[in-house]
User: Fold Tagatose-bisphosphate aldolase from Dictyobacter aurantiacus.
Amino acid sequence: MLAKTLELVTEARQHGVAVGAFNTYSLELTQAILGAAEQLKQPAILQLGVASVKTGGEPLVKATVLAAQNASVPVAVHLDHCADLDMIERCLAWGCASALADGSHLSFEENILLTRQAAALASSYGATIEAELGYLAGTEDGVTIEAIKASLTHPEQARTFVEATGASMLAVAIGNVHGFTPNPPPLDFELLSQIASQVDVPLILHGASGLGKESIQHAISLGVAKINVNTEVRTAFLTAIAAWGQRVGPTPDVRRRGQDWLDLMREATAAARAVVTEHMQTVAMMA
Assistant:
């Protein structure tokens, strides 16, 4: 059933757990995420990135919304990491319940302006805005401890930012990074605690791929109510495809069992679903 992002996140926060938010790029990945959610009887958030929306357009967004509507558990659809107000409006009009107005690369004042404009826009659609304060490096950026420290969320700035923008959720930078790192940098839980004491909106943790169960659950205990996972899920999907290709060889025989498109998609979807299931079990456990 189609749900509102903020309602799912707020309810999770009240119960001391979090909602798993997983990026989807196709119907197969959507099925993997929803299959795990329905099996565990847990709510979930389907996230669409800017590149996916540019590629799939309105059909992809509306198909994702329809899949959420048909799910047996509450599911929200969210536009992830977007700095384009026009795209945010289009996705809200197509059925997304929320969007991340990503001004994290802007100055503090410019980030406030973008987020405030996005929040006003979202309210006209009955939707909500997630904002990001502090810059999350990605693995492609060449992650260093020095770079991470320079980009962390400042607690007092967080309070000013939320008050000035009307953002309903706040993504924080506490040492987390986008993408998978074999040895992820440690999260600054003291900083997270300070941020939580300054703002009264649910906190969001991006870059959960590669973080251990204990770190994720500790973050939840300090106020994080939405956990974003992308890299691990799509890597599992792609790895299954690569393994299928090695097993079948360069010229599949679609007449043979296990070598057609649906066989490939079943294997890849199952691999992604297993990763989603593991993360959903982690975020739903009382910290």
Summary: The CA atoms of residues 155 and 194 lie 6 Å apart. The chain is about 50% helix and 15% strand. The radius of gyration is 19 Å.
